[in-house]
Structure formats: C-alpha cells, structure tokens
Amino acid sequence: MTKTYNLADLEIVGYSDVLTVDLVPRIVPPIFRFRAEAEKLLIPPFRLIDDHVEGGIEGDESDLDRFVGNEQATRIPQPIQARPKHHLWIDEHFKPQYGPEGKVVERLRAVAKKNIPLAWEAIHKEDFDTALQLAQTAIAADEFSLDALLVKAVADKLRGHDDRAAVVAKIAAVTYPDVSFDALVDECSRVHGPAPAPPGPVGVHDGFSNSFDDLADDFSSSGYPVFDLSEALTAGEQVIA
Amino acid sequence: MGRLQGNLSRLLTELNTYAQGEPVCQPRLAAPHADCEFVARNLPLTHSRGAEAFRRICGLGDLLSRKELDKRGIMLIKAGGRLPLEVDLGTVDCVFTYAGPFRYPETSCGFVFDLRIEKVYGATAVATPFDSGGVVKHLRPHDPLPDQVAFLREHEFPVPAYRQYLEACLAVLFASPWEYLGKEGPDADGPIDIVENPRTPRAWTFEVRFKDRLPITGTLLAVFLPVAVAAEDWARAKISSWTASGVDVRILKAPIDGAWERLCEESVSWIRDRIK
Question: What's the mean pLDDT when you consider all of chain A?
C-alpha cells in the first residue's frame, strides 16, 4: 500500500531538477523535509493530492547532498512551509516561488503571452536570437504555447534552418496533432517576417498581428483552414490537470 | 573460470534450486513462458538524466563516469559536499544503464541504447540483477559498507552473458516476462537476499555498467525528452541529426508533477512495441 504524508508536516528544501536559463520560469517537483525530523526527507516521485503527498522515497540529508552532486536536485536557500494545492516554481532569475496552483499557472501563462509580441517584433527586426530566446522562455513557462512554437519555426525558416523548423513542427504535433502547423508558419512568416527590401516604401507593414487570435482571423478571411485555439488549449489544460 | 562467470554459474544454480522449492515457480520451471528468451535477449539498455546533464552529454557526445567527469573538471566528485555512493561502492569509473525501461534517477530525459553495445563494450562491462546504487539505502540497508560492497561483487556478471540469468529470472520469478517492464515486479522473491525499502523496481531491474564512457553517436535507438528541452536551439539541431540517422526521437508533454511517470510509461510502451 502506498504511504501518504500530511503536507502540514512538511517543508520544501529543494526541487528535483537542475534548470538551465532556457528552462525557466518553470514549475518543479519539490523535495520535502519533515518538520519534526530535520534529517528526514521525502523525495519524488510522488503525487500531491489535496492536503497530502502520496508515495515518494524517504531519504536523508546525505541523499540530497548526493542528488545535488549528481545533478539530480537543487537546494533552495530557505525552507518553505508546504501547503495544499500550491506549486513550487522557479522564476527567470532562478528564485524559488511558491503559490496557489491556479495563480501560478496563470502567472506563467502571462509570462509566455507577454513574450510573444516582443518575439514577433524581434523577428520583424531580424533579431532572431532575441526572438528565439523570448520564445524559449515562453515555452519554459507554458509548454502548450503554440505562438511560441510558431515564433521558433518562423525564426528557423528565416535563418535557413529548415531542419530545425521541421523539429518545431514535430514538437507542435505532440500537443496540437490536428493543426496545420506548416501553413501557420507560412502565414506568420508573411505577417511578421522582416520588412520587404526596397524598392517598396520603407517602414510599411500590413499591421502587426501579435496574437494567435488575430492570425486565426487572417486565416478565416484568406481561405486557410481555421484552427480552433480554444479547443486546443482545452486539450492542453486536460494534460496539465 | 573468472569471478564474473563464477558468479553467473553459482547464481544460476541457486535460482534453479530456489525455483524447485517454490510452489509458484515450479510450473514455470517445467514450462517457461514462450517469450522469456525473446524478451531477455532483446531488451535495450536505457539511461535517464535531468535536462542539464542531458544537454551536456549531447554536447560531449559521451556518457561519462563520475571519475571521467571529475578528471575533466566538469562535475567534481566532491561537488555535493559528500562523496557519491559510487566512491564507496567502487563504481566511480562506471557509466550506468538498465536493461529495460528507465528506472533511476527520476528525471525528465532519457537515452535508449542498442543492445549491440554490449558486444562492442562488453569486455570491460559488468551487470548486476539489481541497481548497484540501491544496495546502500534500499536493498541491504542494515549491512556495514564492506559487506554491501562484498554483496555487490558477489552479484556481478559478465556482459552480455548476464542475459542468461535475466532469462532465468523472467522464466521463474515473473508471472510473465513482460511483467519485468512494469512497476509491480516479480511475484516470487528469488534467492537473492535483499530488503526492499520500499519495494522498488531498482530491486529487480538489471543494471549494466560500462567502464569510463559510452558514446551516444551510432549507439542510440531512441531519445526521450520533454517539450521544453526539445524546443531549445541546441536540441532542435541535435534532434534533426538524430532523426536523419534513424534515431527515434520521442517528445513528451509532461504533466506538472508527473514528468518522471510519463517518461517511464513511454519507455515501457516503446520497448514493448520495439521488441514484440
């Protein structure tokens, strides 16, 4: 029978991952310490269910030392009291944060959303490195961000990295198997790509379409198949849940 | 007869004796499941790592032992403040893989190696019928360290000949050889005296340790990685070259608190599909 533990008896002392700059901000699996037994730890994999933890491996400080040394875990500077329905996440500055599940997910999605128009703007200016970094942060925050994948694919194509763009299409197919991703990439390249070279009038652009919703409108009027974003996002949320 | 071959012969005999005396094993001994040999001979080797280590391994092109990483100044043996278990167990010059699905450590990325690496690199490799790192805390937790080390040495087999013992285990300890891939494990304890604390696949999954390094070029069957890692610039380039060379790249969307479970489940279904 799987052992369970009360969250009220636990505090967070680390997380079971070692993150790079390309992987933050991100929700991470916590490593708990028993408040009444300072040497005793509870290490993933486990399930967080309401006010308790189900499963996990009991260990001690030496285990955590070794996990850190073996690049399996990271300590956090100060212990955090465990709470029901909360997520531990690591922000863009590698600072641990802890908050209610819904708010954390909302916050991370907001980070992802904020980066997208900036990334398109960078692409328009042919600053592909910045665009790719902004998109990567968006994916770290919300791996269901189709817009971020589109940014990556467009940047790859414009840089002549068609092979990498094909990988992005493969990644998109994991979450959005029914989306005509290549068609979206072509359309995004047209809408957000660098300004056309002279002799056309300098600085003229047919309007930034900074969100996927705008693009969907473009598609409906241009005869492209329209992708139902809300349906796809619902599918994504089910996976998150 | 060398030490490793001697261990293999002794443990095969012990397993046979055990099975003869165990009611649940007796009918299996008389009529082994038809797939035992097939599964035992075809299980690929796996290795799971976290995102940062995965990235480094792909950059280096090799899985390196702790000793090699230390020698190159990449990951110092004393980095965690305490010596790793591998130092205590004398396995610090080893690269670790499992015959079967990902088992440990519980991370988010993984490599699946073609089992033919056992023929190429087997001369200096050893196998054990459990996870060597589990001996200290989970399998023989009450023994003093010298006894734990002796226990480990007494259960080391030659590679790839260890698959004879794997086949024998699948035949008599498991209701079906396919149960080896799952989380429940064998329904008979077997003759090896181990404590499972708690019951863990590390107790029955065969570990294959290679000396110093294992290249990832030309040796991989599949790679598993989560969306966020796959999307990184270096990873997209790598995935493209893996795909071109026939490596099956599986990109996983992972539930927030279930990346490890997803990785394990995917590796189990991949192995089932691959070797069926």
Answer: 85
pLDDT in tens, A166-189: 999 999 999 999 999 999 999 999
Residues 6+ apart with CB under 8 A from B60: none
Between chain A and chain B, the number of residue pairs with CB atoms below 8 A apart is 136
Across the beta sheet with B157-158, what order do the strands follow?
Answer: B157-158, B126-128, B206-211, B94-99, B45-49, B109-113, B220-226, B248-252
A136–B contact, CB cutoff 8 A:
yes
Question: What are the residues whose beta carbons fall under 8 Å from the beta carbon of B73, sequence distance 6 or more?
Answer: none
A 25-44 → B contacts, CB under 8 A: 26-27, 29, 44
Closest CA to A5 of A33, A29, A39, A38: A33
pLDDT the model gives residue B81: 65
ipTM score for this prediction:
0.89
The fraction of chain A above a pLDDT of 90, given in percent, is 68
Distance CA B225, CA B229 (A): 6
